[in-house]
Design goal:
Helices cover 95% and strands 0% of the residues. The chain is mainly α.
Length: 107
């Protein structure tokens, strides 16, 4: 049985082609894995950044709510004080009118 040179070259070429294909697939899988890991890391970093931003916004909203609550309490006190001042002014006005009327009567 004689093996022809062309058949040996064909078999060696096929084996080499299969080996190249397998090694390329492995290399591509590694490159894809690295790329996926890089993209996933980027997404995770961005999500953490968004989470940090949301936490800051929540803190600011809480602070604003507290400020509004304090302002509301101060406003209520000012309104009560203004109401009391108006009552005192009304009393003074009535007293002044009486004084003016009694002075006019005396004159």
């Amino acid at each position: 049985m004689t093996i022809e040179v062309a058949l040996v070259i064909s078999v060696v070429s096929v084996v080499f082609g299969v080996y190249q294909t397998v090694s390329n697939l492995r290399r591509n899988e590694k490159a894809d894995a690295k790329s996926d890991a890089s993209q996933l890391t980027t997404v995770i970093v961005k999500l953490e950044s968004i989470g940090t931003g949301i936490a800051r916004i929540e803190n600011e909203v809480t602070n604003i709510k507290n400020d509004v609550k304090e302002d509301h309490e101060r406003l209520v006190k000012v309104e009560e004080s203004a109401k009391s001042a108006h009552k005192r002014l009304d009393t003074c006005e009535k007293y002044c009118k009486r004084l003016v009327e009694t002075e006019e009567v005396v004159r």
